[in-house]
Write a structure and sequence with these properties.
Rossmann fold; 13 strands; 6-stranded parallel beta sheet
């Protein structure tokens, strides 16, 4: 067991959740790019080593201590065991990457990330009214106990503050992209990816789980109006909470020979799949950031995306934008990019510049500073930032959690199947 120094503890157990690529990518990349903390603090990352890891733990630098536990995020009957572990590693602050992953019992202050309000915004994006209500309830409870809340974009921060006015110390912690991972792809790797995933010669690529807000249907409908031999490849797995309309839609339009559904691409193959594409399309109806847009730009692929405020914030003018439900607009934009080498070159150059400026170091540095400030007591729930000694966060007496913990336990147990991870 690591010990001897007070620590920043980042909960990365989501890295062992099948399909939770977005959340796992964010927490693991932020941890991997975070420098050694100030004030003699150790940086520790909590994982479940019994589960297959989405991102290899070997990517973490030497100054990061890996703490293993088999207590899962929804192992509520073991919440006191997890709390004892948090205390044993002398955590001065806990970082939680998603509200429903917050431990019910915590012996230290915590900072939580809320990526977006997609589920809260539309019951169709939630899957059911029960799941939407459960998410609102648990998120509200968590935010009433957190010392600070972070979000990856200004657009998300604005929406979160509107829906949760009591969110404490809202802080921008942007996501990013590893340009070297996506930009240094060999022709041999691209050829191997084409063979492995049966990719067509020319194709439009989209990446995202089969959820209503990802809006893949608009691309299928637009493809019918895109001339030539270009195909459409959609990388992403179906979500059991939602009916998947794609297979039926593809068949009804007679596009079986032009659309390829790839449920999963291994992380090490993803850059080559991006690089093989002729154009990347991102038609989302709602997002908290839009990492796939940056990944495509880093891979040197021109991007067409929805004209959402958050996507414009992330990519500026380096992509063509289309209203997300405008089928004719998508067909026109994709046809233009596929047929115009000059336009492709302009978008590729602009996208590379955006990706290069969007490194994970920016968010990791900001998050590290926030966590150090919370650990030192310089940031408290009241927002006071004057230098102060660390607050007296005491281990609760036996049988006691904070006043919301018992309610949280009961609620989460009742709706645990409704609270699936939303990467």
């Amino acid at each position: 067991m690591a010990g001897g120094r007070r620590s920043i503890l980042m909960d990365a157990r989501v890295n062992g959740f099948p399909g939770a690529y977005g959340l796992a990518r964010s927490v693991m990349k932020l941890a991997a790019h975070m420098g050694e903390p100030d004030g003699g603090l150790a940086l520790r990352v909590l994982v479940n080593p019994r589960e297959a890891q989405i991102f290899p733990l070997s990517e973490l630098p030497e100054h990061v201590d890996v703490i293993g536990t088999d207590v899962t995020a929804f192992g509520l009957h073991r919440c006191w065991e997890l709390a004892r572990l948090i205390r044993a590693v002398d955590a001065a602050v806990l970082y939680v990457p998603y509200p429903t992953l917050t431990p019910p019992v915590r012996p230290c202050p915590f900072v939580v990330t809320l990526h977006d309000c997609t589920i809260e915004a539309d019951v169709g994006f939630a899957g059911s009214r029960l799941r939407q209500a459960a998410m609102r309830t648990v998120t509200g409870m968590v935010l009433r106990r957190a010392v600070a809340m972070t979000a990856p974009s200004l657009a998300s921060l604005t929406e979160i503050r509107r829906r949760y006015p009591a969110a404490p110390n809202p802080t921008l912690i942007p996501n990013g992209v590893d340009v070297s991972q996506f930009g240094q792809v060999t022709a041999e790797a691209v050829a191997a990816a084409r063979d492995r995933y049966q990719l067509p010669g020319r194709f439009i690529l989209s990446v995202g789980a089969h959820r209503p807000h990802k809006n893949h249907e608009v691309l299928v409908r637009a493809l019918a109006a895109v001339p030539g031999d270009a195909g459409l490849v959609i990388v992403g797995c179906p979500d059991p909470y939602f009916a998947d309309p794609l297979p039926g839609l593809i068949a009804s339009l007679g596009l079986e020979s032009r659309v390829t559904l790839v449920p999963e691409v291994a992380e090490e193959w993803l850059p080559a799949v991006y690089r093989a594409a002729s154009v990347f399309a991102f038609p989302s109806l709602a997002e908290g950031y839009g990492i796939p847009v940056l990944e495509a730009m880093a891979a040197g692929v021109p991007v067409v995306m929805s004209d959402l405020r958050v996507l414009t914030e992330v990519s500026g003018s380096a992509a063509l934008t289309v209203p997300p439900r405008d089928v004719a607009g998508w067909a026109s934009a994709l046809t233009a990019v596929l047929g115009d080498a000059v336009l492709r070159g302009r978008l590729t150059g602009a996208g590379h510049a955006v990706a290069t400026a969007s490194s994970w170091e920016h968010g990791a540095s900001a998050l590290g500073s926030l966590l150090c400030a919370v650990a030192a007591g310089r940031v408290t729930r009241s927002g006071m930032t004057a230098p102060a000694p660390a607050p007296a966060w005491r281990w609760p007496a036996a049988g006691y959690a904070d006043e919301s913990a018992n309610a949280a336990l009961e609620l989460r147990q009742r709706v645990r199947e409704q609270l699936c991870i939303h990467p």
